[in-house]
Amino acid sequence: MRIIAGSAKGIALLHPTWTGTRPMMDKVKESLFSTVQAYLDNATVLDLYAGSGALGIEALSRGAKESTFIDKSRKCTDLVEKNLKKTDLNDYASVHCTTDEYFLAQHPNNKYDIIFFCPPYDHFITELLEKCSTMLNDEGILIAEHPNKRYKLPDELGKTVRWKQRKFGQTILSFYTL
Q1: What is the pLDDT confidence band of residue 121, given thresholds at 50, 70 and 90?
Q2: CB of 124 within 8 A of CB of 154?
Q3: What are phi and psi of 68, to 5 degrees?
Q4: In terms of Cα–Cα distance, which of 124, 116, 20, 128 is closest to 73?
Q5: How far is CA 64 from each of CA 5, 39, 46, 55, 115, rounded to the nearest angstrom?
């Protein structure tokens, strides 16, 4: 797992060696970032279920101004902090060891330009995804990674609509915007 582009290009990230995490494949990550690249400059980013922090760190490397990382696992948030130091991007990030539900309930008025929503497939909750959609700035983008077979996401989440979907074997990326 490495940073693909930007100020930290080529830096290999530490990744979880324990079960319960699912790093995004490089070809999926490359496709995701080619789709959102035009929106990254000076963006605020929320990386839910951060794992190693690869998505939020990639966004920072490509020009996002700040990234908030959420994961309930202390091992994961420690890993995110190590990766932020390794890439020298820790000044532009905040890392929270808490559940997604708690963070969203405590910060209902926070707004983001880009939200990465990549939960464990056995934890995918459409209601939580809809709550995330209310945290988008105008012209913001919510990207949900989900399995091909098990979950059919709605075309609309509150005021947001799915404008693009990309399939990679058993993985789907759904892109929502206002």
Answers
A1: low
A2: no
A3: -110, 125
A4: 20
A5: 12, 9, 11, 11, 12
pLDDT of 21 reads 63
CA–CA gap between residue 17 and residue 29 (Å, rounded): 20
Look at residues 48, 65, 58, 175 and name the one whose alpha carbon lies nearest to residue 104.
Answer: 48
**In the chain, where the domains are located:** 26-177
Q: What mean pLDDT do residues 72-84 have?
A: 96
Once rounded to an integer, what is the mean pLDDT over residues 70-92?
96
Pair 33, 25: CB distance under 8 Å: no
Residue range 26-177 forms a domain whose CATH class is: alpha beta
Q: Are strands 160-168 and 171-177 parallel, antiparallel or unpaired?
A: antiparallel
- Phi then psi for residue 170, to 5 deg, are -90, 5
Tell me the helix, strand and coil percentages in the chain, rounded to 5: 30, 30, 40
Cα–Cα distance, 160 to 178 (Å, whole number): 4
Local structure of 67: helix, strand or coil: strand
Question: Phi and psi (nearest 5°) for 173?
Answer: -110, 125
